[in-house]
Amino acid sequence: MNALAQHRNTESLPAIWSSHPRDTVAVAMHDLEENEEISVRGKSLRTLEPIPAGHKIALSDHPAGQAVLRYGERIGLAKQDILTGQHVHSHNLATALVGEVDYGNYEHSGTGSHVAPLDTWQGYARSDGRFATRNEIWLLPTVGCVAPLVEMVGREANALHAEEVDAVIGFGHPHGCSQLGDDLEGTRNILAALCDNPNAGGVVLVGLGCESNQLDALIDRVPQRSRAKLRTMLAQDPGDERERLLGIIRELAGELAKSRREEAPASALTVGLKCGGSDALSGLTANPLLGRFSDRLGASGGKLVLTEIPEIFGAENALFARAADAGVHSEASELLNRFKRYFIEQGQPVSENPSPGNIAGGITTLEEKSLGAVQKGGSVPLVDVIDYGGQASEPGLTLLEAPGNDAVSSTALAAAGATLILFTTGRGTPLGFPVPTVKVASNSRLAREKTSWIDFDASRVLNESDNSTVDDFSRYLLDVASGQQTTAERSGQRVISIWKRGVTL
């Protein structure tokens, strides 16, 4: 059955759904047959052809070249004449995205919303004043040559020290050697930033000894506040590397076992916002739900981090209008254009997105995907723009440089200081990342069929008449921050991935 065909109380929902009065298309909530009569905005229309669930139907005639609107904004241009009641998708709708854009002068719009702040939660207080959602030991290899070692020892040590720390995790990756210049710097910076995440109460940096990413240079990039929790080991040094690593972990676990959770303010949370495997409902249910939570965390003085820069293309104007000042607006504009140049210099169009899964789920253009994706940030003011490997430091919404790839961008969110990641999805993925990753389903079929992947069903918002869903969601997230495990944590789905951009020697 189609992914959108089995929503809770489907019979109570309209056949099609439009989220903005300016929309010229609507989303089919279930499979529509040809010549089916449906009602929208007090008017009736007939389908001219079958419309798969999750796909768009034209609410008005669109001459070729006319803008098609969803979320009240342009999602592309009609490639041919489109009649009212026709299926609107990749066969008759094209992107209008171009390369670099002059985003003009800064014009501030009203930002923020009047919402209730969040309650307190139970976290681990760190000596630098930050709070962690987990008390873990992270094993990070400087180079791929010792990645299997840290993964193997991490699994063994996790079982040995389950009573002392929340987890011991070995995060493998294939980089750290045969890299040059900025590419090597990127690997070094992201690993150094991961060392600084509060959830890592202790970190063991494991090197081989002869790699490009030398331990000393890497440690120099780790913020001073986190160097005391670092331990290091070179596998090429004399002695059994497995036993030496287990001994270092044993010492760290004994120290961290003294830590206890205590009451923490919501302002101590740093939350990463991510979407992957989106469908047509992601922009109607899951992403807006994250936006409503973001508004509450923003009102509480917390930090939010938004990334996936290519999935902002086409939706950036509304985001930039929330910039705290002209400097932030300029930095955000430069980041978007720099990322477009990254595509263009590789000979790729800036609109080379959505994915095949997105398209099958009803998303047609990158503008449509982006307009749904940016809703994760709610109406929180945009206060900072940081490079890949940078760290969020200001209350409010920070824009982080990283691609859309799930593992790469989620790793960058953890490196930016996120102690919790909220991940929306319409098609599902089992993958989790360094910090607790809450999977939020856009539709109830996914939530029901993949209970080992999904933590929260956001399709509830389609049937609510109050704030019950965001209230429940907020309470659940505070429980996760306070120690309740996510599905990815329970199944051991914890990975990192590094953004490699240069030549390989």
Task: Report on this structure.
The protein is 27% helix and 19% strand. The chain is an alpha/beta fold and 505 residues long. It has three domains: 85 residues, Archaeosine Trna-guanine Transglycosylase, Chain: A, domain 4 (Roll); 123 residues, Rossmann fold (3-Layer(aba) Sandwich), CATH 3.40.50; 228 residues. The strands form six sheets. A seven-stranded parallel sheet has the order 19-20-18-17-21-22-23, with helices on both faces. β3 and β4 form a beta hairpin. The longest helix has 20 residues. The N and C termini lie far apart (48 Å).
Taken together, the total number of domains comes to: 3
Helix coverage percent of residues?
A: 25-40%
The amount of beta strand, in percent, is 15-25%
The coarse overall form would be globular
Average per-residue pLDDT, rounded, comes to 93
Which strand order does the major sheet show?
19-20-18-17-21-22-23
* Stretches with pLDDT under 50, minimum 5 residues: 1-11
Estimated structural class: alpha/beta
* Largest beta-sheet details: 7 strands, parallel
